[in-house]
Amino acid sequence: MAIAIIAGAGAPRDGPRGAVAGEPPGDDAPTFVPPPRTLPPRLIPAGAAPAEGLSPRLDRLHRIDLIGRAGGRAVTDAIIPQLPADLRAAVASRELRITGDTVQVYVEAEAGVATITPALSARGFVLERTSEDDQIAQGALPIRNLAAAAALDGVRLVRPPHYAGLEVGSAMTAGDAILNANDLRATFGTNGAGVKVGVISDGLEGLATAQTSGDLPVTLDYTTCDMVASGEPDTPTDPDAGAEGTALLEIVHDVAPGAELWFGYFGINSPSAGTALDFQAAVDCLADHVDVLIDDLSFFNAGPYDGTSSISQNASTELNDASNPLRAYTRSGGNRAHQHYQETFEDSGFVLTDSITDWNIHEFQSTATTTDGGQGLPCEQGSPVFCADTIFLAPDGGFTIFLQWDDGWGTSGNNYDLFLFEELSQAWVTSEFIQDGNDFPFEQVSWFNFTGTTQILDIFIASREGAAAPRTFDVFMPCVGCLSIAGNVHNFNTISSSVPNNADAPGGVLSIGAINATDSGNDDIAFYSSRGPTNDGRLKPELIGIDGVAVSGAGGFGTAFFGTSASAPHAGAIAALILACNPALRSGEPGDNPAADRAALRNALQTTAFDLGSAGADNTYGFGRIDADAAAAAAGCVSATDTDGDGVPNDTDNCPLDDNPDQANFDASAIGNGPGIPGDDTTVPNADALGDACDLDDDNDGLPDDSDPDPRGDITIDDDNDGNPMAGCFGGTDPSDDGASWDTNCDGRRDGAPADCGSNTADTDGDGLIDAWETCKWGTDPLSTDTDEDGLGDCTEVMDVNGNNIANANDGSFILQAVFHIIGRDGAFDVNGNGLITVADAVFVLRAFFDVSPCI
């Protein structure tokens, strides 16, 4: 038989100085110097085998209730402070939720939920939610009936639900500029308008404050996808609901201020909600309504860490459902790089025993992927072999240890157990779940430090009777109040494959890692950001965002937001901007192809990311740090650069280099002024496309504004009504338009000179063209024949191409542009390229292409 652990005195060792692990970076915690350490006794407390079909934790709760009832003191939420330390810790960590004399549970059915719910109801079970796929009924069960429910025909197991963990780690996020989202908005002229973005987190405490400060919009939908509304009084804005959801939405609003915001509430802090099934219901609801979905939740032991858990599969299913409008799902990649252990069982040669059962203890050691912080517990005094991992826990701190190994899910016959030993009080906690071939390959224990002294806790993994085949372990230990050991929550840490359930989702769901906004160069991964690969070898995270950014602090959240929870909404908001600037990728567009749209958006984000770390995609940085501007271009967005910063994109700005958000244009043109800008070709036939801010001749009378006594005067082509339009070649400077410099053929000589039209200024029909220009070939003489007696001369009907009831030189320009595709410098009428549009342009094109002289 292997050597038993024996007691002995350990030499004191200095603990490392560092921040409290599991928290955002901050001031260093005080140096913790462990006292002389005593190895655990070889005897551990014997525990009765749990009732058949009842998880060990619930079995322990039930037994305590039975004892209490015998003395008139049943277990209720009022006596939680008197429960044993491990159960108090489970309640404090919200892994066990007791309301009155009931506890929230999952009841697993052997053959369909409907077959067991009537009998459960007869035992006081209040049904909350079901999943036929997982054969689970979720609800509240009286503690006194736990064993009776587990004994029912058709019940496989009664256990606590899986609960989510947050990835936490008048303000504008620094990530907006670092990820080039501000450039995207300017380059492509979009703010996310027309796109719906949904967020799932804890709650919306401080919502009204954030709306008042302008950090969130007044309109925000948080009722449609409230998954705890039925029969529950709590809402996401209630006290204690949590404010991380508010902070996530603030980041989205900073980056995509025009997007419509939605929130999915599943009651993570509610006494009777917050389970994995509630979370999945929130995902399902938002996926039916929004274009982009963002969450920052992680789960442990909800399934293997290979993307096959029901939570991860549900995320993939909803993203890829062709009937959903959802085009992108970004989520926190996890903050677990310093809270993880992954190694294969190695027999230490030592055992634990309770005099009835022996457990062969796993040996902890450093490897190529696992580090040793120097505070592990040796198996015996002076031994180089370590039997336990170590945690230093500050007062009022707590954690849960989640152990899992690579057996078939629900079919494990390898019986490993998890033990926790508190050195100062010599207290033991054990999970003691039995795996006999039809069970889940996981164990978990919780601990909370209710003392005023830092505690030293040792974690053992052991094979019952040494019978379990060697398996690879995954251990996660999310902790609040753990003192840093070499930068980690615990002593033996494995950074690789530290991706929890949900973050490991397949099918195009994007997990986002984090770089601190304050990092010089923004190119070093945050130490806590989870690393891949998943346990089936897939890349995670796919992309890197920014954390350590400013938020308003509404709801008491704090003004600095660390963790991949902050990086995920940056990525989602950028996806929203891209969907806004290229609506063809959204649901309902012509030729809609959801799978292709999702792939195009995802590929644009990944292929344009700024590569970091080793060349190419890797399991630290994924494809790299998001480059929003480049991603939008790759996704097919059309540039709408706003050079002058007046909020009007260059392609519709009538003065792209001058700040003129009013787009005023005294002599506006219908064709040259851009889409959506009113024009007036009827009353301003010689208009131009230049806005007043950059137009040197606002009234287009040929006289520059700085020398025009009336720069906003009459802009008809015959200012003084003498029948003679302003000079077509702009050779004169006479604002009275008396024809002193009229040069209709643009030969540089005034009219009346040889080869010119002469000096006739009569304009019989008052159309702005002198009679010398007008014959029945193409004129508008009102005395001409009116064959169809419609009041318009025949020549007018032939020549009035633009339909303004005036046949003039502009009609010639219309004809030539339409038939011969003659385009001037401004894309329409400015044929002679002088920056202005006048009758001279028509004269030029008519003479050039028809060899027609305006002189008769």
Structure description:
The protein is of the alpha+beta class. The protein is built from 16 helices and 30 strands. Strands 1, 2, 14, 15, 16, 18, 19, 20, 21, 22, 23, 24 and 25 form a 13-stranded mixed β-sheet that branches. Strands 10-9-11-13-27-28 form a 6-stranded parallel β-sheet. Strands 3, 4, 5, 6 and 7 form a 5-stranded antiparallel β-sheet that branches. Helix 6 (about 180-190) crosses helix 13, helix 8 packs parallel to helix 11 and helix 12 crosses helix 13 (about 630-635). It starts with a strand and ends in a 6-residue tail after the last helix. Mean pLDDT is about 80; it is low at about 1-30, about 670-685, about 715-760, about 765-785, about 820-830 and about 850-855.
List the defining traits of the structure above.
disordered N terminus; six-stranded parallel beta sheet; 16 helices; alpha+beta
